[in-house]
Amino acid sequence: MTIKLSTTTRGNGKVFTLIETDLVGASWEASAVTKGNDKVPAKVHLLDDGTPVLVVAGLAVDQSVSVTARDTNGAIIGQARHTVSARGAALASKANTLLKNPRVAALRNCDQDASTTELAVYALRLIPKGTECDLLHALVFFAVVDPAQEPPAVELEVLDDRGRSAVLGEPVLLGDLVEEFPDYPGVYYRAVQYSIPITHEMGWFCLSVSCPEAGIDPNFICMQPHDMFGLLNFWHTIPFGFEGADPNYEAWLKSTRANATDLEIQRRDQATLPIRPKFSVVVPLYHTPIDFFHDMADSVLGQTYPNFELILVNSTPEDADLAQAVTELAAADERVRVVTLDQNYGITENTNAGIDVATGDFVSFFDHDDLLEPDLLYWYVRGINEYPETDLLYCDEDKLLDGHYVEPFYKPDWSVLFLETNNYVCHLLTVRKSVIDALPRPTDVYDGAQDHRLALAAGELARNVYHARRMLYHWRIHSASTAGDGAAKPESLVAGRRAIEEHFERLGIPARADDLPNSPHCYVPVYTPDALPSVSAVVSPGSEEQVRRTVESLEALGWDNLQILTSDPVAERNEVSTSFARAVEGATGELLVLLAAGATVREAASFEQLLACATRPDVAIACPKTVFPDGTNHGNGLAFHERSILHMNRYFYQDLNADRAITVLPHDVSAGSGHVVALTRSTYDELEGLTEGLPQTIWGVDLCLKARVRGLRIAQHSPSRIEFGFVRNDLTLDMESTALQSESDRSYLLRTYPEVLSLPDHYYKPLL
Question: Residue 498: its pLDDT value, please?
């Protein structure tokens, strides 16, 4: 009886070695250790003709492998030891490929199709948590004999390319589902999803799983660099909101910006517009570099809409070169007006000097080192003609670095909630002169946040705010610009808090603004009400365990003014909203919180902030961020784009404040994710309550859209976090049923709210 290991090849991060033997009908097992005596995964896979193949992880170190054959009684009938050399395996694989060894095709990746005798394991996604740790979401499938039996534990291990453990903590269970195979009634499988904290930025890893009590063989997969790249990148291409690096952006901009023909058409068209307001473009100058000055001025004077004045406020008359350039420009173009100050009074007072002499219907605030697209004012005027009551305008912007356009910022439409966290409006802020005149004159206490203060204050009075959804402003990055360093002017951080808190005071909202750590010029509104009104928390139908978990988390709050109600169980998913609506009828609180069964309130303070947000007079519905047990995002609002429904920021780590921190800050949305909503009882009645007989469990989304089409505000209060369960789509094999349910939901929403779903979303970037 012989056992000989011969032909070797590599594939999918593993090493495959043919076992030549005269043993027939044997069962096989394998084990492996590294020279450091670390146990690493190994198995024997049988080809369709019964030929055994040794499979080990493609480590960067040598492995000592033991292969054992047993007879039907379990007795050992053959053994062999073998060393798998990392270098030898690589050379053998290349040689066999070059020589077109006919055996290689059968060996390579021979175990890629899951066997019924071993666990099926998949790596779903890799999520950056911090500089030391990533989170690996892994999925394990296997058949179960008795679905009612207590599920056995699944053991997981992640190894680096030297066979050492890369696990940094206990895996977190995200979901555990037992259901029938779609095509085999009465036959069940179990799907278990885990989140595993692993070493940050590994280039390769091996994921090994076992479940000894299940009586099924262990298994493992290996992730190579290109696999790792896919795990890190595929899941967050859509969930980002609107700002960030895009390697294709500059090419897109150059292909879509107005060309010479477009600009000539605009020059002709603007003359026919019934409303042709005058713009006063105010530019405070302070030791402006001459080349920057000329670029800035040319971008204004080259506008296709001609009815404007360029007001240059020079606060550094001692700068001879700049003073001469200003004088020459004013002499060459009558639209240029000059205000010369005797000294620098700070950005706010310098700007005030420009406003004082402005004769336009609108005042635009332009930085001395930035650039405008030649059609910016044209699109502003088009917006004013479409919405004559417009009092405030802004546009999308990017940054100009060393002659290249980078970091596009596709801004949301008017979002007071987001403006209360950062000056997302920024450029080119343009305000009707009569509105500015109605506001108190600002002082230098707002220096560095003067535009933020103006956007907040003017927005409170504006009859309409127009967002030109076009990339029309270029913010130049250089050593002294806040475009390159948000903390370049630390005094502006204090001014920003002042602007926000005075805004809250004017609106009568008890709140303060706290700095967001590691995010200069971003603030977290913290509500400080004396007391909350009476609250009724109503739990939707769900499994007994889900309802129990939600109710217990609410009871643990210990609030005297909290009423907790549950819904009657239902047999069909389309009965959920009907049962839920019946339960809400018994609510007596002034404030309602509707929770999907399974939602778990972990933090009382966070929950209080959600409820306080819902009591704002300008907010109809407030929705929290829902998070998985491992701290990654489950739901953080929905975006609608031309019939698509997108879950924003799903799987981002909850504290990852990327994309202008929209993932962690309050902001307006078209609809919350729909698992938890808070609103006053009066608003609930105004919206005529929950819609009964909905196709599935989209009661929360439907309620938000009812408010949305009435012009009411939906607040995504991302600082509030409520734990929620798994995404069933990750676990179920019944993809046909899942797809039908999803299409049923989408079809209902599209029929009922076509004005929302058929257009690009108001609060997230277009899909370019």
Answer: 96
* Four-CA torsion 730, 735, 737, 741, nearest 10 degrees: 60
Domain co-membership, 621 together with 753? yes
Residue 69 pLDDT level (bands cut at 50, 70, 90): very high
- The verdict on 229 and 256 lying in the same domain is no
pLDDT value of residue 260 = 96
502, 509 in Cβ contact below 8 A?
no
Q: Note the pLDDT of residue 755.
A: 87
pLDDT at 595: 97
User: Domain with 558 in it: what CATH number?
Assistant: 3.90.550.10
pLDDT(544) > 60? yes
Predicted confidence at residue 1, as pLDDT, reads 62
The DSSP symbol for 496 reads H
Q: Mean per-residue pLDDT for 89-112?
A: 83
Q: Are 124 and 100 found together in one domain?
A: no
pLDDT at 114 over 80: no
| CA–CA separation, 302 and 100 (whole Å) | 66
Last residue of a domain, one of 421, 450, 485: 485
Residue 112 belongs to some domain of the structure: no
DSSP string, 699-727: HHHHHHHHHHHTT--EEEEEEEEEE----
Q: Is residue 135 part of a domain?
A: yes
Provide the whole-model pTM.
0.90
Strands 279-285 and 511-515: unpaired
Same domain flag for 144 and 71: no
Amino acid at 518: N
628 and 693 co-located in one domain: yes
* Residues 227 and 282 occupy one common structural domain: no
Q: State the pLDDT at residue 239.
A: 47
Residues pairing with 632 in the sheet? 653
CA distance from start to end of the chain: 65
Q: Is the pLDDT of residue 481 over 70?
A: no
Tokens read off for 659: 């994309």
- 488: CB partners within 8 A, 6+ apart: 480, 481, 482
> Which domain does 422 fall in, by range?
249-485
Cα 53 to the center of its chain, rounded Å: 44
Please answer whether residues 648 and 664 qualify as being in contact, where contact means their C-beta atoms are separated by less than 8 angstroms: no
The whole-angstrom separation of Cα 2 and Cα 21 is 5
Six-digit token pair at 552?
Answer: 């217990």
Count how many Cα atoms sit within 13 Å of the Cα of residue 279 in the half-sphere of its side chain. Answer: 31
Report the C-alpha gap between 227 and 229 in whole angstroms: 5
Q: Under a CB-based contact definition with an 8 Å cutoff, are residues 360 and 277 in contact?
A: yes
DSSP 100-139: T-TTHHHHTTTT-SPPTTB-EEEEEEEEE-SSSEEEEEEE
Strands (DSSP E) along 390-528, which ranges? Answer: 390-401, 404-409, 430-432, 464-476, 511-515, 523-527
pLDDT value at residue 241: 52
Whole-number average pLDDT of the chain: 91
- 398, 451, 496: which is closest to 284 by C-alpha? 451
Check if the beta carbon of residue 28 is closer than 8 Å to that of residue 69.
Answer: yes
Contact 219, 113 (CB under 8 A): no
Q: At what angle do helices 491-507 and 450-461 cross, to 10 degrees?
A: 10
Residue that wins the pLDDT comparison between 105 and 255: 255
* Gap between the Cα atoms of 515 and 500, Å rounded: 11
Per residue in 682-697, pLDDT (tens digit) is 999 999 999 999 877 8
Strands (E) across 506-582 are located at 511-515, 523-527, 535-539, 562-566
Beta-carbon-side half-sphere exposure of residue 255 (alpha carbons within 13 Å): 6
Specify the higher pLDDT residue, 697 or 624.
624
- The angle formed by the CA atoms of residues 321, 322 and 325, to the nearest 5 degrees, is 90
Task: Compute the distance between CA of residue 662 and CA of residue 410 in angstroms, rounded to an integer.
Answer: 13
**pLDDT confidence of 316, banded at 50, 70, 90?**
very high
For the chain, how many residues are written?
768
